[in-house]
Write a structure and sequence with these properties.
mainly alpha; single chain; about 350 residues; globular; hpI Integrase, Chain A; 2 domains
Length: about 350
């Protein structure tokens, strides 16, 4: 029986008996990615997106990469444009882009291996990416509201509170938190070692004292009762004594976000956005935030300069010609209150 939040293995896609078919060449391509030390998550994503192409091709009796031409790939691209998700909404252009990149890389690899004479995807134009800001960004008060949702009188509540505190204090990704070990947290130095993060890069980041205190309470009072027969040193354990899967973390955090009733949706990444945005608003240098979040490019971190509106708002209020001085604001508020009071008095007289 699979664990809660665990993804079940998918059925075989393609004909594994055809040496020139999609299935055999796909497996050879994926093996080359593993040889190049790509992360298993990257490999899994490539499998998912390539399988989508293979299934689409098989519906049209196309079973070999050698049968694929540029017009066929352009038809597949139009298929993605009109494709609907389970909720009936179309794929975003970013999602379409993500599905087409593995296709281009796959055919490029086939040509490099002399398995194809020409690359039908070489001139395939990808959709332009939208520069979108995070849909929801939490304020400090809203974060505290979510942190207070777990029932800390129960053991699982203490564990969940510790997890939320780590997310908020460090801004780490859900997969990075799931792989944390006991020895990765240095309470004396106030640091956390993230091992093999995105891009298989290690980094050391600071963690707040409050988060450390919750971790200590969890490791002393709760974790000993969760450890199974085999102790592998994983910091956060489920009630079955196993490491969290990323999907299970998403389900847990989403439940607390929903329970806080903030009118905002999201999960683990909400805390990552909040950590970066609030630190930036409080004066942190963007390069320190880049190092903390583990971004390879500064451009990725610069999105938070657009999300952080406080400084821009202060400049707007102090320099815009239509700004109002404090005494003008107070006068306007007094006039509005007086008008409301007169309207209320008039209504009472009319009723009499």
């Amino acid at each position: 029986m699979p664990r809660k939040g665990e993804i079940l293995p998918k059925a075989q896609v393609g004909d594994p008996t055809d040496p020139q078919g999609f299935a055999v060449l796909r497996e050879a391509y994926l093996e080359s990615l593993r040889v190049q030390n790509y992360s298993e998550r990257t490999v899994e994503n490539r499998i998912s997106y390539l399988n989508a192409l293979i299934l689409w091709c098989e519906d049209r009796s196309l079973r070999r990469p050698s049968e694929i031409t540029k017009p066929i790939l352009e038809r597949y691209q139009r298929h993605l444009l009109h494709m609907k998700k389970r909720d009936g909404k179309p794929l975003s252009f970013r999602a379409q882009h993500a599905r087409l990149i593995p296709v281009r890389q796959f055919f490029k690899w086939l040509c490099r291996q002399n398995l194809l004479l020409s690359n039908p995807a070489s001139d395939l134009l990808l959709p332009r990416l939208e520069k979108r800001l995070p849909k929801h960004v939490l304020s400090a008060r809203e974060v505290e509201s979510i942190l207070n949702q777990p029932d800390v009188t129960e053991s699982m509540g203490v564990r969940d509170r510790a997890i939320l505190e780590v997310f908020y204090s460090t801004g780490i990704r859900r997969s990075e938190l799931a792989h944390l070990q006991l020895f990765d947290v240095d309470a004396e130095r106030g640091t956390v070692m993230v091992r093999l993060g995105k891009g298989k890069k290690d980094r050391m980041i600071p963690i707040g004292e409050r988060a450390i205190r919750w971790i200590e309470r969890y490791t002393e009072d709760v974790r000993p009762g969760l450890v199974g027969e085999v102790e592998d040193g994983t910091l956060f354990l489920t009630n079955l004594g196993e490491a969290f899967s990323p999907n299970r973390l998403t389900q847990m955090v989403r439940g607390y976000v929903k329970a806080a009733d903030l009118g905002k949706s999201g999960s683990c990444h909400l805390f990552r956005h909040a950590c970066a945005t609030l630190m930036l608003e409080n004066g942190a240098d963007i390069r320190f935030i880049q190092a903390m979040l583990g971004h390879a490019k500064l451009e990725t971190t610069e999105i938070y300069t657009h999300v952080s509106i406080r400084q821009l708002k202060a400049i707007h209020e102090s320099t815009h010609p239509a700004r109002m001085h404090s005494h003008a604001v107070q006068k306007l508020q007094a006039e509005l209150e007086e008008m409301q009071q007169e309207e209320t008095t008039g209504l009472m007289n009319d009723s009499v």
